[in-house]
Design goal:
By secondary structure, the protein is α+β, with helices and mostly antiparallel strands. The chain has 6 helices and 10 strands.
Length: 182
């Protein structure tokens, strides 16, 4: 199994816990519809690949929200940083979510040690996130390349910076877990 397959299996094992978080914040009566990798012709997967939209939340009144989701292993919790993919393939500059992210909100969480829930999570407002990140020099933050065979790279922005930007750009952080003191 490739590193990518292992990561996707890890992410997918946590979706039930993300659903619990969504129901906590958006109500028990929502419907959650998430893209999968099982059918590459699936419209939902098209939304993920082209617009970085993983999940659609439907409310009983018919209105919808869409979200990108990222779950990180607990070992990354000590770094406490938000990562945004610049290039899917940094050698060929295949555009990543920095260029394509069109989701309304972004669930970003760090799994607990047992990977059966979350130690820490944020739900970020992507529009406000874009404005906030465009107001700073993002290039001053580390640009990390994944190790081969993965080819993507990411800017690594401390959540302390995201918290500070939320003070200037009110509404950047829509929700967060109770233990997100930075």
């Amino acid at each position: 199994m490739s590193d990518w397959d292992i990561y996707k299996a890890f992410e997918e094992s946590l979706t039930q816990f993300i659903d619990e978080i969504y129901k906590k914040h958006f109500g028990d009566d929502i419907t959650i519809d998430r893209s999968t990798r099982e059918d590459e012709n699936e419209k939902k997967l098209f939304m993920d690949i082209n617009f970085s939209i993983d999940t659609i939340i439907r409310f009983p009144n018919g209105s919808v929200l869409n979200l990108q989701e990222k779950s990180r292993q607990n070992t990354w919790l000590s770094k406490n940083e938000y990562t945004i993919q610049l290039f899917k393939d940094y050698k060929n500059e295949g555009k990543g979510e920095w260029f394509k992210l069109m989701a309304q909100f972004y669930f970003y969480g760090f799994a607990n040690k047992e990977s059966n829930g979350y130690s820490k999570y944020y739900i970020l407002n992507v529009g406000v996130l874009r404005l906030a990140l465009n107001s700073i020099d993002i290039t001053k933050y580390p640009l990390m390349n994944n190790k081969e065979p993965l080819k993507s790279n990411f800017y690594c922005i401390p959540f302390k910076t995201i918290e500070e930007l939320d003070k200037e750009f009110n509404g950047l952080i829509l929700y967060k877990s109770d233990d997100t003191d930075n």
